[in-house]
Write a structure and sequence with these properties.
Chain A: Its EC number is 2.3.1.250. The complex is a heterodimer of chains A (515) and B (290). Chain A is an all-alpha fold and 515 residues long. Chain A is built from 20 helices and two strands. Chain A has a two-stranded antiparallel ribbon. In chain B, β6 and β7 form a beta hairpin. The chains are: A mainly alpha (515), B alpha+beta (290).
Amino acid sequence: MAWMDASSQWGQDLIAMEMEDDYLERRYYHDDEAESGYVDYPDDYPLDDDYGNYDPYDAYYDDEMYYTKISASELFDQRIVPTVSQACQTIMPLLGMCFVSRITSYFVAEVLHGSAVGQFIVHSTSAISGLVALHWFFRENLVYLVMLGILAYLLLFVTWCKCRGLSGVTVAFVTVVYLVTCELVVVKETEWHQIRGAQMILSMKIISLGFDVSSGAIVELPGVIEYSGYVFQVGSVMFGPWISYQQYIHLLSSHKVEKKLLFYWVCKLAKSFILSVVCIIISTCIIHWLVLEYSFIWLLAYRDAQSFRFSHYFVSYLSELTLTMSGLGTTKNNGDVRWDVTVTKPYHIELPRSLVEIVTNWNLPMHYWLKTYVFKTARPLGNFIAIVLTYAASSILHGLNFQLSAVLLSLGFYSYVEYVLRQHLSKSFDACILAKRCKADCEHSYKSTHPYVILVNLGFGLLSVFHLAYLGLMFDNSSSEEQGYSMDHTLSKWSELGYASHWVALATYIFYILI
Amino acid sequence: MAIARSAKMAVEECQLQFKNRRWNCPVFDGDHGRSVFGKILRKGCRETAFIYAVTSAALAHAVSRSCSEGTVYTCTCGQRLKRSTPASEWDWGGCSDNALFGHKFAKDFIDRVEKGRDLRSIMNLHNNEAGRVHVSRKMHQECKCHGMSGSCTVKTCWMRLPEFREVGTMLKDRFDGASRVVQDNVGNSRRVQLLPSDPNHKQPHSRDLVYYESSPDFCERDSVTGFRGTRGRLCNATSIGLDGCELMCCGRGYRTETYSARERCNCIFHWCCEVTCEICNRTRMRHTCL
């Protein structure tokens, strides 16, 4: 305890510092071991967690954690910097691939003027860069994606020759069977959880292509190269968003690059990039820093749900970024080209008017996809069946785990209750309190600016926030996150809150039936 | 600076963990056995074991933390991302070396003193290591997944050092379950082993605290440990635990006195946001050991 002697009188910081310097110098500047920098553990040092049942205290320790707020500078050093740098390191190759695809399509449009060779180059670059990106993220697991792609093309080809009308249904059915088999039988949980997002985008693309072929929206069956260019399009293969085949074909008609357009392109890239970085910082660092463990339970629920939402915004902005980077995501308005792909609208989700609004704005392309390819297709079978099918499609695409299905089912029920109740109320009071925003020229006598209308809408909005906190709270980053969450996890989280939101929704429904 | 801070941290933690026991981790200013903790360090009892473990843990903790703060220039908190294996297996480059560095630093720094091969040195080395292991084992990685609808396409991770309070509490539990050891005289002389004094007990684990002498009862002034005894200590008249007057005063009895304390009372919250209180004189009771 020689060193304790030195600091035996408090205030002798100086001595301690000298010792430190002297020590460090001796130890680390004239020592070969300095390079390795690791502890030479004794042989019996337990580096593994393999203690058997030795320590009955461990479980107890883990429960009893002490949380205090770390300083802002520590937050920055230990959380924000690593988080952002890891995120950037991971997505940079993807962005690089997107840029390659963009440059290729630009030069082909400039030099080869859309000749057959040019088209071939554009499609194959798109597909190859997409596959490279997939490999960068998933390594050998990319095989499940490629297999689905091949399977779907074979089906499309066969149905195209034999019976065009059934293309969509067949492809959709086989995709669903494939997804379910993969998830339940073939692929390991952790791996599936990793590729699920990409698998979802791929399935959406394939199914939409099938239905477009059926309905005649696509006249010619795309060739193998065009097809793979579409389904593995680098800008949307990883994080989405879903794009239709018609949108993809725009890649060929690369418009003359004007200075102004290039400027807007860069602006859009910068905007998406900054927003995604901000969202990931909020999601992983700030929220958990602001609200500490052992706060009020509903506050914790709100925190975990919000962290999940911001993680979703991060992915959404990232998908905007990649899509724009790869040269897609434009709309033409009176000959005016704009880079304005929008995947999510956080504003409408954080400060919602209704659950319906949240569901719509959560992922706009996906919402459009569900509406066009599932709801409208199934409508002839009746409204109710169409709604059930839409819900089922969304569940299966998201993966068959209990947690997501429970959340989606609850969400479906809640938004239905809210929708009918507000419709009823709106009719009775002749006021703009529908789940959807009133148009400017609506026929209600109480417009959106009326104080009572504002109050009622605010009330419904708060109710939505409450429901959303309840539904989103189990997407916390607990240890089970990498495999997907189990049913026990979900139910335990909800029972902690006494299933409050389900009771509230039920009460709302009973109220609706009574009036 | 990390070293000075760690010594302070160790003392604070020790005093907090032992505030309700007879031996309450007193510190000394003057030349009292040449150490802040006093002569008790020359003994080989449980309390000694705890002091060694907690100081060693405090140093490891403080150095690890300064590492990630960047105040110790020899350890780099480099942002290298080791991606040796497929993307699914993430390795954290970042600051994971910090716990190891802190561990190593504390080991070199503190263990250097114990050069002997006697039981006391071995015991001290063991307890030092036990303290450090608690720190580095509790340094853990936390991750968060990002991806479409909650999938795990991208993962971001960071390291989290345990709060020192947590380490102190764990060491206190180890203190309560510390094993008494004897030196293993059989076998080769190069490596001295510690054996439990009761042959029916297990071999002490690297995280266990060990001692070889019984603790004194710490009731009376003791010149060997330099402890002042419990005379004059405050105690809890209603508790039957170690902080209760019966045990704390070793049956000598206690004196009860009343004193008046000035406290805030009748606080009213005014919208918004002000709290106004009155000052009241309240009578309180205090028990001190005879």
